[in-house]
Amino acid sequence: MEATKRLRRRGNDGGEVKTNDEASPEFSDFPPEIITEILLRLPAKSIGRFRCVSKQFCSLSSDLRFVKRHTERNAGNRKLLVSSRNLYTVELDSIGEGIRVLAAVELNYPLKDEPGYLAEKIRNYARERGGLELNLNLQLLRRNRVEIIGSSNGLVCIYPEKGGAFLFNPTTGESKKVPESLSYKGEPYGFGFDTLSDDYKVVKFVATSDNKGYHNADVYSLQRDSWRRIDGLRYKPVYSTLGVRLNGAIHWVVKLEKGQSQKRVVVAAFDLKTEKFRDIQLPDDAGDYKYLQVANLKGHLCLVFCDLGKQVVIWVMNEYGVERSWSKIQLDMFYSSMTPLWSSTKNDEEVLLELEGNLVLYNFESKTRWNLKINCDIRSTFMANTYVESLISPNSYGNNGIEI
């Protein structure tokens, strides 16, 4: 209300005169296209704050065409989303400028104040024993785990420990609960944007009754706000359960059931447009499939091989979908887990990696690395993903037509 009052000016007689659409007098004479160009150059968070300035700003920042243009313009301005006892957002621009401790901002996310399973079990244990007082800081056990399924265009699919999946915009704080799928069973998830139908989709594998394979998958459509079943799969789980979005598809490393192919392990790619799966053959020397993980390395599909006591090996698919284009990179590292998170825009050879619960900036050319820290309470095991700031709302989704 105060913001609106400040936008009113006084006439020559001292009386109050309202500008058009309650707009600020400084902007009242500006052509709408000039105001649009100015706002397009501002961060999404700033534009969100300007919504209360005037009806004109509020209407413009909610317009789907404006949201699309703003997201496209700011596609390179990515942030790091970290999950560890909480959700944090971290600026990536400072990496590579000599800063080794990264500033983190705590986020408010769906079901943040719901106690985790461990805290609930401890409370129940205390109740069963007549209100036994435990010398524990239960606050540290709350919000114990939030899984990051994936991100696209500023929307992030998260899975709090209790409560199911949500589509969440870390910039605006808006969220939408994803309804329960056709089946409660299933572990591997994926999330992405379908440019053909302008739709966000969540993919969930459905486990067989004996939990030894996946014969079905459920696909959630944000436009329809419902799930549909895909039959005819013959996969078995291998290692990582989270899919990697790249080139309009979501990818997992899976094992084929007997009799389907001589090569039992493949990359399963779910096409977000056709909603069909196809198999991508692994390189011939891909090693022990149990330790293979699919990832995105500088915009290329890659496979990461990690095994304790063995060197880290990466296979990069230089031309997407062309199996003969796999190339091998052997790193002078010995880790049991490694995930590429982000490629520097300032130095093409520098990549931010998660190495056994640590953040490391690695230079592929000089083979040098720098350890990074985050100034928040993170455990040795954490999840991280990147996202772009945007104004896209999961609750009023429309025709965006972009993929970032």
Automatic annotation (TrEMBL):
Residues 1-29 are annotated as: Disordered. Coiled coil: none annotated. SMART domains: FBOX. Residues 24-70 form the F-box domain. Residues 10-21 have a biased composition (Basic and acidic residues). PROSITE patterns: FBOX. SUPFAM superfamilies: F-box domain. It holds the Pfam family F-box. This is F-box domain-containing protein. It comes from Arabis nemorensis.
